[in-house]
Records
---
Amino acid sequence: MPYIITDAERETFLKLSTNEEREQFIENFWLRRDPTPDTPENEFKEEHFRRIAYANEHFASGKPGWKTDRGRIYIIWGKWDDLEQHPSGGNYNRPFDEGGGSTSTFPFEVWTYHYLEGIGSNIKIEFVDSSGTNDYHLSPILEKRRAVYVPGAGLSELESYGPG
């Protein structure tokens, strides 16, 4: 629940003093999210736990998958619409909006969601494994570039020509 509970719900929960109150709160928490309350299944709850299981199976890296950045995003927003993977890093021809040119990168992934309610359209989320441990974390676009950490080697070929 930590990724989907609202601030107001968290505040209320923390004020509860008995296990019975907490259990009732949790039951109501799931009931409020049930898209079909007249059926025995709670599809929202089932999907939430399915996402946790998927995250644990696919994104674990020295910690449970649900505790990783990829796991958190997957649990909150679900499966991406488009996936770009570069599991070995290496040479990468950057698109113009990233500065163009060719550079060397850490392993990275870009998840694209066509639409996220309350966020917008064509949302790209990038994860980088800069430690080489399969612990991909949310990152700014340029972090994937290996050379950015090497003095004098941080620019792509196109950037080396200067502004223009």
Note: Residues 146-156 have pLDDT under 50 and may be disordered.
---
Amino acid sequence: MTTHLGSPQSAREALRLATTDVHERLHVATPFRKIAEGALDMGDYVALLRSIFRFHAAVQPVLSTDPVTAPLNNSERVEQLRKDLLTLCADFPATPPEWTPGHGGHAALGCLYVVQGSTIGGRVIYRQLDYLFGRSSEGRAFFAGSVNDPQRWMAVRAFLEQSIDSPDRLDRMVEGAQATFTLFESCLEQGLKENSA
């Protein structure tokens, strides 16, 4: 999708505007709404973790190998998810098929924007899960993130702005971000279906 926004607009603002609708859908998606209400039970929480694991298993190979995104990528998040699932004695979902966010490294930057930006909301979810875990961090370490996440997010944002020297590159970032959110919604929907089967 072409944005035709031109280089004067910041990359972050263009990405935010292009993904507003999906952000709003995810805020009211059943698992996240129930967490905010303190109503998601442990079985449904495990199903959510499995969905998120499936998503990260698809995006991390892209982010870890793309020369543009690899230096800024945080692959530790998959390990945190793995530990949470093991703590909760949950099995791992099937490996997802190979996935790509679009064409070229700037699409991968849009993917990185989504993945790294999610650490901000993750900290909110971590606190909302107190009703399930009390004071324990085990089983929700993924949402806690790491102490370096705020600095990494700032570095990603700065790099995004340095990388939009043409409208085409901005379009590729938007394409990558939208594709990444579409993948996440698909993983979430698949997890909900598996959990209700």
Note: The chain is about 70% helix and 0% strand.
